[in-house]
Amino acid sequence: MPGVSVPNSNVPSWRTVACYFTQRSFPFTDLFEKMSPGVCAGYLRRVQENVIPSIRKLLDHFRRNGSLVVYTAVGTETRDGRDLACWARALDEAGMNLLGTRIHPPVGDPSWQIDPALEPGPEDIVVNKLSAGTFATTDLAKQLRNRGVENVVITGVVTDVCVSTTAREAADRDFRVVVVSDACTTFSERLHQANLETLQVFGWIRQADEVVRLTQKARSISG
Fold first, then answer.
1. Average pLDDT over residues 30-39
2. Structure confidence at residue 222 (pLDDT)
3. Which residues pair with 72 in a beta bridge?
């Protein structure tokens, strides 16, 4: 799901993705392929060709500027999924019925780890959440405020679930939100675009190159 990188007090923050949302042959994509054959091909192509390269570009930019990077993943801490939100438990049940396995891995499982192409650095934070949004089941808001963060830049998958919910939660907690349009996606391009349109109520929609350019400009003015 989405991950979050967090910059300094007046610079953005963001989120990234666990392996089972970005690679083939994990229960998450297997389940949706089973329910809607062919749906995963375009999704996984966009993840590899657009989302991961855009996130890497932002990672490099924010790290060079000393910004905090926060990754998020979704995994059960009880190993049986009882601690997950009801919608996630329902996906697990569907996985058991259609695939014979749960969808959400336990924390620490290889499929729970961040995609190797976006590997966390030693200064980065990895947060496990039990819900679609990051803020509802973590202390992330407190961690950001303790660091003086006011703006968050959000990326990851999928646009209509974890990215969208986290963006709304962040805005409701008085963070200024930027969602990076080419650094997130979902199973349908139409659904991706529709969610980006609704998120304009809660913040700004920008491409990765725009975020880099705008934050560089803000730093040159303030510094």
1. 93
2. 61
3. 127
